[in-house]
DNA sequence: AACAGATATATTGCACACAATATAATCGCT
DNA sequence: AGCGATTATATTGTGTGCAATATATCTGTT
Protein backbone atom coordinates (compact mmCIF):
# COMPACT_ATOMS: atom_id res chain seq x y z
CA UNK A 1 0.00 0.00 0.00
CA UNK A 2 3.03 2.23 0.23
CA UNK A 3 4.68 1.86 -3.16
CA UNK A 4 6.51 -0.68 -5.22
CA UNK A 5 9.47 -1.21 -2.99
CA UNK A 6 9.40 0.57 0.35
CA UNK A 7 7.73 3.32 2.27
CA UNK A 8 9.30 6.56 0.97
CA UNK A 9 10.34 7.62 4.43
CA UNK A 10 12.16 4.36 5.02
CA UNK A 11 13.77 3.80 1.64
CA UNK A 12 17.55 3.88 2.18
CA UNK A 13 18.29 4.01 -1.54
CA UNK A 14 16.85 7.42 -2.41
CA UNK A 15 19.54 9.57 -3.98
CA UNK A 16 18.67 12.48 -1.73
CA UNK A 17 19.18 10.33 1.35
CA UNK A 18 22.76 9.44 0.41
CA UNK A 19 25.45 11.03 2.48
CA UNK A 20 28.10 10.69 -0.15
CA UNK A 21 26.39 11.89 -3.29
CA UNK A 22 26.55 15.60 -2.40
CA UNK A 23 30.22 15.09 -1.67
CA UNK A 24 30.75 13.42 -5.01
CA UNK A 25 28.83 16.12 -6.84
CA UNK A 26 30.65 18.90 -5.03
CA UNK A 27 34.03 17.49 -5.98
CA UNK A 28 33.07 17.26 -9.63
CA UNK A 29 31.83 20.84 -9.58
CA UNK A 30 35.01 21.82 -7.81
CA UNK A 31 37.18 20.41 -10.57
CA UNK A 32 35.17 22.28 -13.17
CA UNK A 33 35.59 25.45 -11.14
CA UNK A 34 39.34 25.14 -10.65
CA UNK A 35 40.06 23.97 -14.17
CA UNK A 36 39.80 27.32 -15.98
CA UNK A 37 41.57 29.14 -13.13
CA UNK A 38 44.52 26.74 -13.08
CA UNK A 39 44.81 26.24 -16.83
CA UNK A 40 46.75 29.49 -17.38
CA UNK A 41 49.26 28.19 -14.81
CA UNK A 42 49.57 24.91 -16.69
CA UNK A 43 48.28 22.92 -13.72
CA UNK A 44 45.46 20.49 -13.07
CA UNK A 45 43.83 20.45 -9.65
CA UNK A 46 45.80 17.50 -8.23
CA UNK A 47 48.98 19.02 -9.67
CA UNK A 48 48.10 22.27 -7.91
CA UNK A 49 47.78 20.34 -4.65
CA UNK A 50 51.23 18.83 -5.18
CA UNK A 51 52.62 22.31 -5.73
CA UNK A 52 50.97 23.57 -2.54
CA UNK A 53 52.67 20.81 -0.57
CA UNK A 54 56.04 21.43 -2.20
CA UNK A 55 55.81 25.18 -1.71
CA UNK A 56 55.47 24.43 2.00
CA UNK A 57 58.37 22.00 2.20
CA UNK A 58 60.82 20.65 -0.30
CA UNK A 59 62.07 18.17 -1.31
CA UNK A 60 59.71 15.41 -0.34
CA UNK A 61 59.43 11.75 -1.20
CA UNK A 62 56.62 10.38 -3.31
CA UNK A 63 55.38 8.66 -0.18
CA UNK A 64 55.23 11.79 1.96
CA UNK A 65 53.37 13.64 -0.79
CA UNK A 66 50.96 10.74 -0.97
CA UNK A 67 50.45 10.67 2.79
CA UNK A 68 49.61 14.35 2.76
CA UNK A 69 47.23 14.14 -0.20
CA UNK A 70 45.81 10.65 0.43
CA UNK A 71 47.13 9.39 -2.91
CA UNK A 72 49.28 6.39 -3.76
CA UNK A 73 52.13 5.89 -6.19
CA UNK A 74 49.79 4.58 -8.85
CA UNK A 75 48.34 8.07 -9.09
CA UNK A 76 51.39 10.13 -8.19
CA UNK A 77 54.07 8.53 -10.32
CA UNK A 78 52.55 9.39 -13.71
CA UNK A 79 51.33 12.75 -12.42
CA UNK A 80 54.82 13.67 -11.22
CA UNK A 81 56.34 12.52 -14.48
CA UNK A 82 54.03 14.89 -16.33
CA UNK A 83 55.03 17.70 -13.98
CA UNK A 84 58.68 16.84 -14.55
CA UNK A 85 58.11 16.94 -18.30
CA UNK A 86 56.49 20.35 -17.83
CA UNK A 87 59.62 21.56 -16.04
CA UNK A 88 57.97 22.19 -12.67
CA UNK A 89 59.56 19.51 -10.49
CA UNK A 90 62.67 17.34 -10.38
CA UNK A 91 62.69 13.60 -9.60
CA UNK A 92 65.89 12.12 -8.21
CA UNK A 93 66.64 8.90 -6.40
CA UNK A 94 67.60 9.45 -2.78
CA UNK A 95 71.33 8.65 -2.56
CA UNK A 96 70.92 7.55 1.06
CA UNK A 97 68.00 5.20 0.31
CA UNK A 98 67.74 4.19 -3.30
CA UNK A 99 64.15 3.05 -2.89
CA UNK A 100 63.05 6.63 -2.47
CA UNK A 101 62.47 9.29 -5.09
CA UNK A 102 62.90 12.88 -3.99
CA UNK A 103 60.59 15.42 -5.56
CA UNK A 104 61.94 18.96 -5.63
CA UNK A 105 60.94 22.19 -7.29
CA UNK A 106 62.67 23.64 -10.31
CA UNK A 107 63.23 27.38 -10.57
CA UNK A 108 60.18 27.51 -12.78
CA UNK A 109 58.21 25.59 -10.18
CA UNK A 110 59.25 28.02 -7.45
CA UNK A 111 58.49 31.02 -9.61
CA UNK A 112 55.02 29.73 -10.37
CA UNK A 113 54.05 30.39 -6.76
CA UNK A 114 53.72 34.11 -7.44
CA UNK A 115 51.24 33.39 -10.23
CA UNK A 116 49.23 31.13 -7.94
CA UNK A 117 48.72 33.65 -5.16
CA UNK A 118 45.47 34.91 -6.66
CA UNK A 119 43.91 31.43 -7.00
CA UNK A 120 42.28 31.07 -3.56
CA UNK A 121 40.75 34.50 -3.81
CA UNK A 122 39.52 33.89 -7.33
CA UNK A 123 37.88 30.61 -6.31
CA UNK A 124 36.35 32.06 -3.16
CA UNK A 125 34.78 34.85 -5.17
CA UNK A 126 32.79 37.10 -2.90
CA UNK A 127 31.95 34.60 -0.20
CA UNK A 128 32.17 35.41 3.47
CA UNK A 129 35.14 33.88 5.22
CA UNK A 130 32.97 32.72 8.12
CA UNK A 131 30.84 30.65 5.79
CA UNK A 132 33.90 29.16 4.16
CA UNK A 133 35.55 28.39 7.50
CA UNK A 134 32.45 26.59 8.74
CA UNK A 135 32.13 24.50 5.61
CA UNK A 136 35.80 23.64 5.61
CA UNK A 137 35.62 22.44 9.18
CA UNK A 138 32.63 20.24 8.46
CA UNK A 139 34.21 18.66 5.44
CA UNK A 140 37.36 18.07 7.44
CA UNK A 141 35.34 16.16 10.01
CA UNK A 142 34.00 14.02 7.23
CA UNK A 143 37.53 13.29 6.03
CA UNK A 144 38.41 12.16 9.52
CA UNK A 145 35.34 9.91 9.56
CA UNK A 146 36.10 8.35 6.20
CA UNK A 147 39.80 8.00 6.93
CA UNK A 148 39.16 6.24 10.23
CA UNK A 149 40.21 2.61 10.03
CA UNK A 150 37.68 -0.06 10.89
CA UNK A 151 35.07 1.99 9.15
CA UNK A 152 32.62 -0.61 7.96
CA UNK A 153 34.06 -3.71 9.59
CA UNK B 1 61.80 37.15 9.90
CA UNK B 2 58.59 35.23 9.26
CA UNK B 3 59.55 32.71 6.63
CA UNK B 4 60.64 32.43 3.05
CA UNK B 5 57.54 33.67 1.37
CA UNK B 6 54.82 35.04 3.63
CA UNK B 7 53.72 35.31 7.21
CA UNK B 8 52.19 31.92 8.03
CA UNK B 9 48.95 33.47 9.19
CA UNK B 10 48.52 35.31 5.92
CA UNK B 11 49.68 32.71 3.43
CA UNK B 12 46.68 31.79 1.26
CA UNK B 13 48.49 28.81 -0.28
CA UNK B 14 48.86 26.56 2.76
CA UNK B 15 47.24 23.22 2.08
CA UNK B 16 45.40 23.30 5.38
CA UNK B 17 43.83 26.62 4.49
CA UNK B 18 42.27 25.30 1.29
CA UNK B 19 38.54 24.88 1.31
CA UNK B 20 38.48 22.35 -1.40
CA UNK B 21 41.24 19.96 -0.47
CA UNK B 22 39.30 18.23 2.32
CA UNK B 23 36.47 17.81 -0.14
CA UNK B 24 38.78 16.30 -2.71
CA UNK B 25 40.36 13.98 -0.15
CA UNK B 26 36.99 12.94 1.22
CA UNK B 27 35.74 11.97 -2.22
CA UNK B 28 38.80 9.85 -2.90
CA UNK B 29 38.40 8.11 0.45
CA UNK B 30 34.74 7.67 -0.35
CA UNK B 31 35.46 5.82 -3.56
CA UNK B 32 37.88 3.53 -1.76
CA UNK B 33 35.22 2.85 0.86
CA UNK B 34 32.42 2.10 -1.60
CA UNK B 35 34.58 0.08 -3.98
CA UNK B 36 34.77 -3.15 -2.00
CA UNK B 37 31.12 -2.88 -0.94
CA UNK B 38 29.86 -2.39 -4.50
CA UNK B 39 32.21 -4.82 -6.21
CA UNK B 40 30.10 -7.90 -5.31
CA UNK B 41 27.19 -6.14 -7.02
CA UNK B 42 29.27 -5.53 -10.14
CA UNK B 43 28.96 -1.75 -9.79
CA UNK B 44 31.31 1.18 -9.53
CA UNK B 45 30.29 4.20 -7.45
CA UNK B 46 29.00 6.33 -10.34
CA UNK B 47 27.22 3.30 -11.74
CA UNK B 48 25.61 2.81 -8.33
CA UNK B 49 24.42 6.42 -8.47
CA UNK B 50 22.87 5.80 -11.89
CA UNK B 51 21.08 2.77 -10.47
CA UNK B 52 19.77 4.82 -7.53
CA UNK B 53 18.26 7.32 -9.95
CA UNK B 54 16.75 4.61 -12.15
CA UNK B 55 15.33 2.72 -9.19
CA UNK B 56 13.46 5.92 -8.35
CA UNK B 57 12.16 6.56 -11.85
CA UNK B 58 12.52 4.78 -15.12
CA UNK B 59 13.10 5.18 -17.99
CA UNK B 60 15.06 8.38 -18.13
CA UNK B 61 17.01 10.15 -20.83
CA UNK B 62 20.77 10.49 -20.70
CA UNK B 63 20.23 14.18 -20.14
CA UNK B 64 17.91 13.81 -17.17
CA UNK B 65 20.33 11.37 -15.54
CA UNK B 66 23.10 13.88 -16.12
CA UNK B 67 21.08 16.74 -14.67
CA UNK B 68 20.44 14.73 -11.53
CA UNK B 69 24.05 13.57 -11.12
CA UNK B 70 25.80 16.68 -12.50
CA UNK B 71 27.44 14.65 -15.27
CA UNK B 72 27.49 15.18 -19.03
CA UNK B 73 27.23 12.80 -21.95
CA UNK B 74 31.01 12.55 -22.21
CA UNK B 75 30.98 10.72 -18.92
CA UNK B 76 27.61 9.01 -19.08
CA UNK B 77 27.64 7.58 -22.59
CA UNK B 78 30.57 5.20 -22.08
CA UNK B 79 29.46 4.43 -18.52
CA UNK B 80 25.96 3.50 -19.70
CA UNK B 81 27.37 1.38 -22.50
CA UNK B 82 29.35 -0.59 -19.94
CA UNK B 83 26.22 -1.01 -17.85
CA UNK B 84 24.33 -2.15 -20.93
CA UNK B 85 27.09 -4.66 -21.68
CA UNK B 86 26.76 -5.88 -18.07
CA UNK B 87 23.05 -6.46 -18.65
CA UNK B 88 21.84 -3.89 -16.10
CA UNK B 89 20.25 -1.24 -18.33
CA UNK B 90 18.77 -0.88 -21.79
CA UNK B 91 19.49 1.94 -24.20
CA UNK B 92 16.88 2.75 -26.84
CA UNK B 93 16.30 5.78 -29.02
CA UNK B 94 13.14 7.63 -28.10
CA UNK B 95 10.69 6.99 -30.96
CA UNK B 96 9.06 10.38 -30.37
CA UNK B 97 12.33 12.31 -30.44
CA UNK B 98 15.15 10.48 -32.11
CA UNK B 99 17.75 12.70 -30.51
CA UNK B 100 17.06 11.18 -27.14
CA UNK B 101 18.23 7.88 -25.73
CA UNK B 102 16.03 6.28 -23.09
CA UNK B 103 17.77 4.40 -20.33
CA UNK B 104 15.67 1.69 -18.70
CA UNK B 105 16.34 -1.14 -16.30
CA UNK B 106 16.57 -4.77 -17.32
CA UNK B 107 15.09 -7.46 -15.09
CA UNK B 108 18.56 -8.04 -13.75
CA UNK B 109 18.94 -4.34 -13.05
CA UNK B 110 15.65 -4.27 -11.14
CA UNK B 111 16.53 -7.40 -9.21
CA UNK B 112 19.86 -5.92 -8.16
CA UNK B 113 18.02 -3.47 -5.95
CA UNK B 114 17.43 -6.13 -3.33
CA UNK B 115 21.15 -6.81 -3.14
CA UNK B 116 21.87 -3.08 -2.76
CA UNK B 117 19.59 -2.50 0.20
CA UNK B 118 22.35 -3.21 2.70
CA UNK B 119 24.83 -0.77 1.11
CA UNK B 120 23.90 2.45 2.95
CA UNK B 121 23.97 0.69 6.30
CA UNK B 122 27.25 -1.01 5.53
CA UNK B 123 28.83 2.30 4.56
CA UNK B 124 27.42 4.18 7.53
CA UNK B 125 28.83 1.59 9.88
CA UNK B 126 27.98 2.51 13.44
CA UNK B 127 27.74 6.26 13.04
CA UNK B 128 24.99 8.28 14.64
CA UNK B 129 22.34 9.44 12.23
CA UNK B 130 22.39 12.95 13.70
CA UNK B 131 26.05 13.32 12.83
CA UNK B 132 25.46 12.04 9.33
CA UNK B 133 22.45 14.30 8.78
CA UNK B 134 24.42 17.34 9.85
CA UNK B 135 27.33 16.57 7.58
CA UNK B 136 25.07 15.83 4.64
CA UNK B 137 23.32 19.14 5.03
CA UNK B 138 26.60 21.03 5.14
CA UNK B 139 27.97 19.33 2.09
CA UNK B 140 24.72 20.02 0.28
CA UNK B 141 25.15 23.70 1.04
CA UNK B 142 28.58 23.53 -0.50
CA UNK B 143 27.14 21.93 -3.62
CA UNK B 144 24.72 24.81 -3.88
CA UNK B 145 27.58 27.27 -3.50
CA UNK B 146 29.70 25.59 -6.14
CA UNK B 147 26.80 25.08 -8.52
CA UNK B 148 25.78 28.75 -8.33
CA UNK B 149 26.46 30.50 -11.62
CA UNK B 150 28.59 33.62 -11.61
CA UNK B 151 30.76 31.99 -9.01
CA UNK B 152 34.10 33.59 -9.60
CA UNK B 153 33.17 36.24 -12.13
C1' DA C 1 8.88 23.17 -47.64
C1' DA C 2 13.31 25.14 -46.42
C1' DC C 3 16.65 26.73 -43.40
C1' DA C 4 19.02 28.79 -39.28
C1' DG C 5 19.48 27.95 -34.66
C1' DA C 6 18.85 25.11 -30.79
C1' DT C 7 18.94 20.54 -28.57
C1' DA C 8 20.54 15.68 -27.39
C1' DT C 9 23.83 12.44 -27.60
C1' DA C 10 28.32 10.58 -29.20
C1' DT C 11 33.31 10.84 -29.96
C1' DT C 12 38.15 12.16 -29.10
C1' DG C 13 41.95 13.24 -26.34
C1' DC C 14 43.88 13.93 -21.99
C1' DA C 15 44.45 13.38 -16.98
C1' DC C 16 43.37 11.35 -12.97
C1' DA C 17 42.34 7.32 -9.34
C1' DC C 18 42.68 2.82 -7.70
C1' DA C 19 43.37 -2.35 -7.27
C1' DA C 20 46.60 -5.65 -8.20
C1' DT C 21 51.01 -6.80 -9.27
C1' DA C 22 56.02 -6.24 -10.08
C1' DT C 23 60.65 -4.70 -8.97
C1' DA C 24 64.27 -3.08 -6.37
C1' DA C 25 66.36 -1.69 -2.06
C1' DT C 26 66.66 -1.95 2.94
C1' DC C 27 66.09 -4.03 7.49
C1' DG C 28 66.11 -7.51 11.07
C1' DC C 29 67.40 -11.72 12.66
C1' DT C 30 70.43 -15.29 13.17
C1' DA D 1 77.46 -12.42 5.77
C1' DG D 2 73.00 -14.37 4.37
C1' DC D 3 68.17 -14.35 3.83
C1' DG D 4 63.25 -13.71 4.52
C1' DA D 5 60.22 -9.89 5.49
C1' DT D 6 59.30 -5.18 4.86
C1' DT D 7 59.34 -0.82 2.44
C1' DA D 8 59.21 2.48 -1.62
C1' DT D 9 58.16 3.23 -6.05
C1' DA D 10 56.70 1.73 -10.71
C1' DT D 11 53.63 -0.67 -13.95
C1' DT D 12 49.26 -2.53 -15.83
C1' DG D 13 44.50 -2.50 -16.62
C1' DT D 14 39.97 -0.59 -15.92
C1' DG D 15 36.84 3.13 -15.17
C1' DT D 16 35.74 7.59 -14.67
C1' DG D 17 35.50 12.99 -15.67
C1' DC D 18 35.77 16.89 -18.65
C1' DA D 19 36.72 20.13 -22.61
C1' DA D 20 36.19 20.40 -27.28
C1' DT D 21 34.18 18.85 -31.19
C1' DA D 22 31.05 16.18 -34.25
C1' DT D 23 26.60 14.41 -35.72
C1' DA D 24 21.89 13.93 -35.96
C1' DT D 25 17.38 15.61 -34.87
C1' DC D 26 14.00 18.94 -33.89
C1' DT D 27 11.80 23.75 -33.75
C1' DG D 28 10.40 28.12 -35.18
C1' DT D 29 10.19 31.33 -38.80
C1' DT D 30 9.46 32.61 -43.18
What can you see in these coordinates?
Two copies of one chain form a homodimer. Chain A is mainly alpha-helical and 153 residues long. Chain A is built from seven helices and three strands. The radius of gyration of chain A is 20 Å and the shape is globular. Chains A and B meet through α1, α2, α6 and α7 of A and α1, α2, α6 and α7 of B.
* Count of helical regions of chain A: 7
Which structural class matches the secondary elements of chain A? mainly alpha
Number of strands of chain A: 3
Quaternary status: homodimer
Characterize the main sheet of chain A: 3 strands, antiparallel
Give the integer mean of the pLDDT values of chain A.
Answer: 85
Shape of chain A: globular
The radius of gyration over CA of chain A amounts to 20 Å
**Order of strands in the sheet with most strands of chain A:** 1-3-2
Which two chains form the greatest contact, residue counts included? A-B, 60 and 60 residues
What is the CA–CA distance across the termini of chain A? Answer: 36 Å
Helix coverage percent of chain A: 55-70%
Catalogue the unreliable spans of chain A: 149-153
Please write the string of helix (H) and strand (E) elements of chain A.
Answer: HHEHHEEHHH
Topology summary:
Two copies of one chain form a homodimer.
Chain A: H1 20-38, H2 45-56, E1 60-61, H3 62-69, H4 73-85, E2 89-93, E3 101-105, H5 107-116, H6 119-124, H7 129-147
Chain A binds a DNA duplex (30 and 30 nucleotides) through residues 28, 31-32, 35, 44-47, 61-63, 71-79, 82, 97-101.
Amino acid sequence: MTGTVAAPGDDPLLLDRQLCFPLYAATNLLNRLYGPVLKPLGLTYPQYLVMLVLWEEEPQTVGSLGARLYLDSGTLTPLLKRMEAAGLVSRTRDAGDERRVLIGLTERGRALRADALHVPGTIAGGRSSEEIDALRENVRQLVAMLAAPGDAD
